[in-house]
Design a protein that fits this description.
The chain is mainly alpha-helical and 170 residues long. The chain has six helices and no strands.
Length: 170
């Protein structure tokens, strides 16, 4: 699992940065191209789109890195440690069983920031057995905790960066 060590929180997140650059580049290419074309007057079409794509890639990369940097694994772990037992899907088991599922959900969100949990759930389920550590939970029980952690992180990201990044309608 690639959960970030709190001591390394200032290091770059190339996956998030790259994803942000791609998404920002595409969106920026359209919006920025139109804006650049309007601002310059004669810079329309492919030239305006290219200028907008570069600007959008820079903004998108910074946004993607911001999402990844906003996730503090130590804070998330403490939150879930304090709150897991009150969750409706918890039926027996200790935090040692649920903790890996929460960490997996946080890590998955940082790896797939522009997708919904439902879009990647089958991939996560397939990989759970290699990521679960000492958790006794099978994916059918672990996925609820992973989804909960995913939504907690995505909701925090949406408060920081406007939009519905997890496509949950909130």
């Amino acid at each position: 699992m690639s959960i970030q060590n709190p001591a390394d929180k200032d290091k770059s997140h190339p996956v998030a940065t790259g994803t942000g650059a791609v998404v920002g580049g595409a969106a920026g290419g359209i919006a920025g191209g139109a804006a650049a074309g309007a601002a310059v007057g004669g810079m329309t079409g492919p030239v305006g789109a290219a200028v907008g794509a570069v600007a959008g890639a820079v903004v998108g990369a910074l946004a993607g890195k911001g999402i990844a940097n906003a996730v503090d694994p130590a804070v998330e772990d403490q939150y879930w440690r304090d709150n897991y037992s009150s969750r409706p899907y918890v039926s027996g088991g200790s935090y040692d069983d649920y903790g890996p599922a929460y960490r997996y959900g946080v890590d998955a969100y940082t790896r797939y920031p522009n997708r919904s949990f439902d879009d990647v759930e089958s991939d996560l389920g397939r990989d759970w057995n290699t990521q679960r550590g000492s958790s006794s939970l099978e994916w059918e029980r672990a996925k609820h905790a992973s989804r909960d952690a995913w939504h907690r992180v995505s909701n925090a990201a949406e408060r920081a960066i406007p939009g519905d990044s997890d496509r949950d309608g909130r």
